[in-house]
Write a structure and sequence with these properties.
This protein has about 400 residues and is of the alpha/beta class. It is built from 12 helices and 11 strands.
C-alpha cells in the first residue's frame, strides 16, 4: 500500500499517533472493567503543578503565624496532615481520613532537571513502569490528558508494552459512551474493528522497517483495537458535562483535564498524568496569596468534582483510585524561590493520615528523607501492586 493511500485509510478510520480516544468509533466504550494484576481495578492520577508547589499544600502547619500567610483559620486539618483551605476544601469529608504526604529530598533547584527527574527511574519512565506493574487489560494503560508529553516535553519509550497515550479531545469518547447513533459515513463497531485490523496488517511491513519513528502508530492501532472490543456501558453524558461545567470537549483547561481523567479511570487506565502550567513558579509570593488564589480558581473546581466522584462514596467500591499532587519543588524562604525538595499530597482509600512530607519552618525535610524513586515506590504500594518495580517501599507507614 503506498504512503498516500495508507495515510488516507488511517485518517478515514480516525487513527493516528495517540488519537485513540478521539477516534470515531460509535458504539464503542472505554468503560469496560479492567481485570488488573492488583486486587481490584486501580488508577493512579498524578496532578503536576508545573513550576513548583508551595508547602502550604502539603504541610501548612509548619508555617503557622510565621510564613506564607498561614494562620490557624485558613487551614484544613486532616489528622496530622494540615493543608491550606484552597486545597483542603476540595477534599470531600469522607476522603479526609485517607490523605497522606510523602517527602522527596531530590536536591534539585532547576525546573528542567526537576521535571525530567521526577518522572524517570533509571533509564525508564516512572509512570509507565507503574502502569505496567498495575497490569490489567485496559485498552489504554497510561495517558496524559490535555497534552502529548510528560512535563519538560518528555515522550518516553514504552515499558513492557505500555505506552503513553495523549488525550486532547473527549468528543468522540463521550459520543461513544453515550451511545450516539452511527453517522451515515461512519463504520459501526464490527466494521471499525475489521478496518483497524486491516490497517495494522497493511502497515506492518512499513512499521517494522521504521519501528522507532512509527512506534506511536503501532501503539495507537493496538490501543484502538482493544478499545473497540470493549462492551458499551451506561453513561450519562449530560450529567457528566454538567458536573465538570464543560463548555466543549477539548481538554484545554484543568476542569476538562479532570473530566478526561475520570473517563480514563472509568475505562481502567492505570496511570493518568494531568499537568497545569499555571503561575506556580511563584517568586516573590511571600504571603502565599498568589498561589492560594490561583489554586482556588484554577485547580479546586475540577479537583473537587473528580475527588467527590471517583475517590469518595460509592465510587470507591471495587475500585482503588489514588491521586498524587506535587510539583517541581517547594517554594523556599524568604523569597518563595526554589527549594531543593518537594512533597506529594496523596489521597486514596489505601492511605491514612501520616504527614511524612511535612517540612520544618524553613521548608527543609528531615535528614535521610528518601528521594524520587521512593515516591514512586510509595505510589506503587498504595496501588497494591504484586511486585514493586521501584524496590522496597520506605513509605509503608502511610498505607492503611
Amino acid at each position: 500500500m503506498n504512503n498516500f493511500s495508507r495515510r488516507g485509510f488511517l485518517k478515514a478510520l480516525g487513527v493516528g499517533a495517540g488519537a485513540v480516544v478521539g477516534t470515531r468509533i460509535p458504539g464503542s466504550s472505554l468503560l469496560g472493567v479492567a481485570h488488573a494484576a492488583t486486587p481490584e481495578p486501580t488508577s493512579v492520577v498524578v496532578i503536576f503543578l508545573d513550576g513548583g508547589i508551595n508547602a502550604i499544600f502539603t504541610g501548612a502547619d509548619a508555617f503557622t503565624n510565621t510564613a506564607f500567610g498561614v494562620t490557624g483559620n485558613n487551614v484544613t486539618a486532616m489528622g496530622g496532615v494540615v493543608v491550606d483551605n484552597a486545597l483542603g476544601q476540595a477534599i470531600p469529608q469522607g476522603a479526609q481520613s485517607r490523605v497522606a504526604s510523602i517527602g522527596v529530598r531530590h536536591g534539585i533547584t532547576d525546573h528542567g532537571n526537576a521535571q525530567r527527574s521526577l518522572f524517570v527511574n533509571g533509564n525508564q519512565s516512572a509512570p509507565l513502569m507503574l502502569a505496567n506493574a498495575i497490569g490489567g487489560n485496559a485498552a489504554i494503560k497510561a495517558a496524559v490528558v490535555g497534552g502529548n508529553s510528560l512535563p519538560s516535553g518528555q515522550r518516553p519509550a514504552p515499558v513492557g508494552g505500555v505506552s503513553l497515550q495523549p488525550i486532547q479531545d473527549m468528543r468522540a469518547t463521550i459520543d461513544a459512551i453515550a451511545g450516539a447513533e452511527n453517522a451515515p459515513n461512519v463504520a459501526d463497531r464490527p466494521g471499525s474493528l475489521k478496518g483497524l485490523e486491516a490497517a495494522t496488517a497493511m502497515s506492518k511491513r512499513v512499521t517494522e522497517k521504521s519501528s522507532r519513528s512509527l512506534t506511536s502508530v503501532n501503539e495507537g492501532l493496538a490501543s484502538a483495537i482493544e478499545t473497540v472490543k470493549k462492551p458499551v456501558q451506561p453513561f450519562n453524558a449530560q450529567e457528566f458535562n454538567t458536573a465538570y461545567n464543560l463548555q466543549g470537549t477539548a481538554v484545554n483547561n484543568f476542569r476538562a483535564k479532570m473530566a478526561a481523567a475520570e473517563l480514563m479511570v472509568r475505562s481502567g487506565t492505570n496511570v493518568v498524568i494531568a499537568s497545569d502550567q499555571g503561575p506556580w513558579d511563584s517568586h516573590g509570593d511571600t504571603t502565599g496569596n498568589n498561589v492560594r488564589n490561583q489554586f482556588t480558581q484554577r485547580i479546586r473546581p475540577g479537583l473537587q468534582t473528580f475527588l467527590s466522584r471517583m475517590v469518595d462514596g460509592p465510587a470507591t467500591t471495587g475500585r482503588n483510585v489514588i491521586v498524587a499532587l506535587f510539583g517541581d519543588f517547594h517554594r523556599s524562604l524568604p523569597g518563595s524561590d526554589h527549594q531543593a525538595n518537594v512533597s506529594a499530597l496523596v489521597i486514596g482509600k489505601t492511605l491514612k493520615n501520616v504527614p511524612k512530607g511535612k517540612t520544618d519552618n524553613r521548608v527543609g525535610l528531615a535528614g535521610g528523607s528518601p528521594g524520587i524513586a521512593a515516591l514512586w515506590a510509595g505510589l506503587a504500594g498504595a496501588a497494591k501492586v504484586d511486585q514493586n518495580p521501584f524496590g522496597a517501599n520506605p513509605h509503608g507507614d502511610v498505607l492503611a
